[in-house]
User: Fold this.
Amino acid sequence: MKTQKPVQLTPEEVAFVRGLVMYEDADILALNKPAGLSSQGGRGQVNTLDELLWAFAKPGKARPRLIHRLDRDTSGVILTAKTQPAASFLGKAMMRRAFSKTYLAIVTPGAPDPKGGAIDAPLRRVEQGREAYMQVCSADHPDAETARSRYKTLKAGEGSALLQLDPESGRMHQLRVHLASIGRPIAGDARYGGALVVNGQPIPRLMLHATALGFPHPGGGTKRLEAPPPADMAALIDALGLR
Assistant:
């Protein structure tokens, strides 16, 4: 495996990423990622979360390893492994779909019909220049990837709804594309048709939050971590009457 060169972080960056820690033990480190922070591979001068993890590296040792990713504008629970054995264990658990992920999303223009169910629609990756996005496609398309998402309406309001989402697969942009495909795009999701203003309330970003993550722990047993929605999303939930 290629040795990663340490990234030099400012004291402010170290303090910032340490402030995101929501759980830590000998094997894992979990963070509550804010919206606007790329997990990996971001462009520009700002360090990604993957690079910020050097704040936790011991002298001469590797940094914690990301086990999964969240979209740049998605907030919430993200898991890392502190050791190679833990990374291997969790990676294999992810591959066999032993993780359970729960998200919260604000959608428009109201609750789906039916209010709960599953979206079982294959997806394909499309690239345009340096940008990539996903599209629903037929199951027999040569690039089709199976994708399934369960959803439940928690509260419906005038022109919007708060949904709980449980993806059963982990395709890029899966929840965003699946919800757009049933006419209920996530608020603030300009790429997939999400509203940027709802009932007079401006929506500055994607309103999607990874609120819970359950997984087998490398040390034995299972672990479930939960993070409440960030302040801006919580305020919008209240403003739209979706509490």
